[in-house]
């Protein structure tokens, strides 16, 4: 059995309520809710794989709209005791799922500011979201393979929240089609 995970129910709006071979989990937005909900799910059941779907803002202006697989994540909104951005005092700077894909910057606020994206862009991140770091870290703690697929919803700059609200249904359809092709369901 696999676990299909999204932060928000709207990101699953194009998916059927039941998907053969998958349980479903909606965690809520942000790293804390993602960590709590996924930990509870993995503590209660055994899964062969976690499959995360959802939206993300594009930090890389050359990145095509569509669905992208994520290979690694870092927290763009933390600093260590020396003030080094992206470094946490007790967590790894980056987490990886061992897959090929793009780097995503995870933080607990919705990025919709050109100044913020200008700070994140030099890290090499292609996307920004609010949960992926937590999902990959928790999966690693439980030793469960994880794949993360993000559909580009906005440019993570001025007006991104309006763009996201308009795009979430379109992104859900893209993700549903992608999962249907990748998993045959």
UniProtKB/TrEMBL annotation:
The record's listing under SUPFAM superfamilies reads: Purine and uridine phosphorylases
**What's any one GO cellular component for it?**
cytosol
This protein's name:
Nucleosidase
Domain (Nucleoside phosphorylase): give its ranges.
103-165
Give the matching Pfam families.
Answer: PNP_UDP_1 (PF01048)
Tell me, what is an example of a GO biological process annotation in this record?
L-methionine salvage from S-adenosylmethionine
Molecular functions (GO terms)? adenosylhomocysteine nucleosidase activity; methylthioadenosine nucleosidase activity
């Amino acid at each position: 059995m696999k676990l299909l995970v999204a932060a928000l129910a709207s990101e699953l709006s194009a998916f059927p309520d039941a998907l053969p071979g998958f349980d479903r989990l909606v965690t809520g937005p942000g790293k804390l809710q993602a960590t709590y909900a996924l930990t509870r799910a993995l503590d209660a059941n055994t899964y062969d794989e976690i499959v995360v779907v959802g939206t993300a803002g594009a930090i890389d202006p050359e990145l095509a709209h569509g669905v992208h697989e994520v290979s690694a994540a870092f927290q763009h909104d933390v600093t260590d005791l020396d003030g080094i951005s992206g470094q946490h005092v007790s967590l790894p700077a980056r987490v990886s799922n061992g897959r090929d894909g793009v780097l995503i910057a995870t933080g607990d606020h919705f990025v919709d500011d050109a100044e913020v994206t200008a700070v994140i862009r030099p890290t090499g991140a292609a996307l920004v979201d609010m949960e992926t770091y937590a999902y990959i870290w928790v999966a690693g703690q439980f030793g469960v393979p994880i794949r993360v697929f993000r559909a580009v919803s906005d440019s993570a700059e001025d007006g991104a929240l309006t763009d996201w609200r308009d795009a979430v249904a379109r992104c859900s359809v893209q993700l549903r089609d992608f999962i249907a092709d990748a998993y045959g369901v």
